[in-house]
């Protein structure tokens, strides 16, 4: 059985999908980009600010499922320029304890929705 997870503290979906699905004790999140949940505008001042907005959006989705970043077991990071990796990683790292951080992949892609620079999705368990 699946349960739809939704919150107004993260951007509403811009297509036929949900912010997250809880199946049993496992949460599967959709990718988050740097859309501000209240204004609907992209936050792209610089790559660190953009990444922080993505992570704050993800935090809101996790909280809507009564979880935190401690519950995350896997992340997928999609970026449009591998040269931004270190700055993205620096911000991303502030949300996790390095000793218990989740598994992760980082993939460079040609384009992302709304031509953003970074998109992140996660899998978490209770």
Automatic annotation (TrEMBL):
CDD domains: YjgF_YER057c_UK114_family
InterPro entries, per database record: RidA, RutC-like_sf, YjgF/YER057c/UK114
Pfam families: Ribonuc_L-PSP (PF01042)
Superkingdom per UniProt: Bacteria
Alphabetized NCBIfam families for the sequence: Rid family detoxifying hydrolase
Similarity field: Belongs to the RutC family.
Record protein name field: RidA family protein
Species the sequence originates in: Olleya sediminilitoris
Lineage, broadest ranks: Bacteria, Pseudomonadati, Bacteroidota, Flavobacteriia, Flavobacteriales
């Amino acid at each position: 059985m699946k349960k739809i997870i939704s919150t107004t503290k993260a951007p509403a979906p811009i297509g036929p999908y949900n912010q997250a699905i809880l199946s049993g004790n496992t949460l599967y999140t959709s990718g988050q980009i740097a859309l501000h949940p209240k204004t609907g505008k992209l936050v792209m001042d610089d790559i660190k600010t953009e990444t922080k907005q993505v992570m704050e959006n993800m935090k809101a989705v996790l909280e809507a499922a009564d979880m935190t970043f401690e519950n995350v077991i896997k992340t997928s990071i999609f970026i449009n320029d591998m040269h931004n990796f270190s700055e993205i990683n620096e911000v991303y790292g502030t949300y996790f304890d390095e000793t218990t951080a989740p598994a992760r992949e980082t993939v460079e892609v040609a384009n992302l929705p709304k031509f953003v620079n970074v998109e992140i999705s996660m899998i978490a368990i209770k």
